Amino acid sequence: MESTEHARIPSGLHGESRRVPTTKISLRNTFRALRHRNFRLFFYGQLVSLIGTWMQQTAMSWLIYDLTGSKFLLGAVAAVGSAPMMIFSLWGGVLADRHPKRSILIITQIFEMIFAFVLAAVTWFHAGTPTLIMIIAAVNGIALGFEMPARQAFTVEMASREDLLNAISLNSSIFNGARIIGPSIAGLLIATVGTSMCFFLNGVSFIAVIVGYLMMRVPPATAAAKDSASQHPLSGIHYVMNNRRVRTILSLFGIVGIFGWSYAVLMPALARDVLGLGPNGYGVLISASGIGALVGALGVATFGHSFAPRNMALTGIWIFSSSVVALSLTSNFWLSLALLFFSGIGMLLFFSTSNTVLQTIVPDNMRGRVMGVWSLVFGAMIPIGSLEAGAMAHWFGTQYSLAFGAIICAVAGLVTLIAIRRRLAEEGN
Fold it and tell me: Of 283, 290, 402, 408, whose CB count within 10 A is highest?
């Protein structure tokens, strides 16, 4: 049996302390959430499905930029695809608290599979106009609005509360592992057979995750509270606004998402206009960031419980910000790959840690609605950030837009740290 010792670490971004076991580092510890059968089924199904998702996202961005040459439309398509998710996520959170989460996930995955096949068909028959692509992206965003809160809240049920950080980190690892593989495959397919095959293969990939959900052994759902039917979706927002720790996490999450995560929508412009690359080079750039995030995810899965969440989250922001600022100052391909690698590590440290803390500090009966608010912020940050990045790049240039967003993220992290320390000083901690 592995030996353990107890360390006193902050349980959230505000630094409140709790005693947790610091487990001896081992490979088994890195993948311990896979001991849960349901999470194993989810893990392997998602790995296949997410490769298809990244293939589709890569192909869609390239298709839009190839059809229009507009940097603004790169951001606009991402915004249109995410806006419905923002609108419907609150209701998705309510459904996740009141109905079996697995059933919600199966239904939404089926719809997303259908939309991928439709996108493949219209592209194959050369009917893929920017307007039609935006419509399909918007309808797919509605399904995501119901899927994301249920999937986030279902993680603790597939694994366990004590393995939640590990499960979220492993989920991040497959997300970013797919981010490495998917764009690389997409780049090859775009250059050889066109974008429609990327969309078609994404549709096929949904079969794996749907089968995984169907094979899970899920206990019968408990009845919802009698007053849950009358609870308005805004109850999640009310809870967040009255909980200082949750409010701080989501505020910083939103700022970093708007001004940081949006850098991804500028990758086609960075690849073609700044670095002079084609589809294959574009896929390699995205994969470099994905490799960094994968390394970061496995690092968090292995060592995450040994460090204060606040330190990991804020360090992640500053690693990301410094890397992207440096990226904006270079036109060297190899240096850009290295900087994107470190930006991926930094972004993963922040997102994975903040997600884990958020889910562990909320009560079980509110988790779906709080993750609905999380999805609302996530859904809002993509369209707002994409439009901001696209507009800035259109008027001032791609590199200026990258630097501006990264600096905002760094400042937000610093302001948050100062506010936390001031509050702790007032409380005498």
Answer: 283
The whole-angstrom separation of Cα 331 and Cα 290 is 20
pLDDT of residue 339: 92
Q: What is the pLDDT of residues 189-206, one digit of tens each?
A: 888 888 889 999 999 999
Instruction: Let me know the angle formed at the C-alpha of 263 by 257 and 267, rounded to the nearest 5 degrees.
Output: 150
pLDDT score recorded for residue 323: 92
Two tokens, residue 186: 């997409």
Q: Tell me the pLDDT tens digit for each residue of 268-299.
A: 888 888 888 877 787 788 778 878 887 887 77
Instruction: Supply the pLDDT for residue 28.
Output: 64
For residue 397, CA distances in Å to 68, 153, 253, 269, 273 come to 17, 39, 26, 10, 10
Distance CA 47, CA 50 (A): 5
Burial (Cβ within 10 Å: 0-12, 13-18, ≥19) of residue 131: exposed
Per the DSSP assignment, residues forming a β-bridge with 8 are 19
- Per the DSSP assignment, residues forming a β-bridge with 10 are 17
Q: CA 389, CA 76: separation in Å to the nearest integer? A: 10
Average pLDDT over residues 413-421: 86
Average pLDDT (199-214) is 93
The overall average pLDDT reported for the chain is 79
Do 420 and 310 contact (CB within 8 A), yes or no? yes
Check: pTM over 0.70? Answer yes or no. Answer: no
Tokens of 391: 């507009």
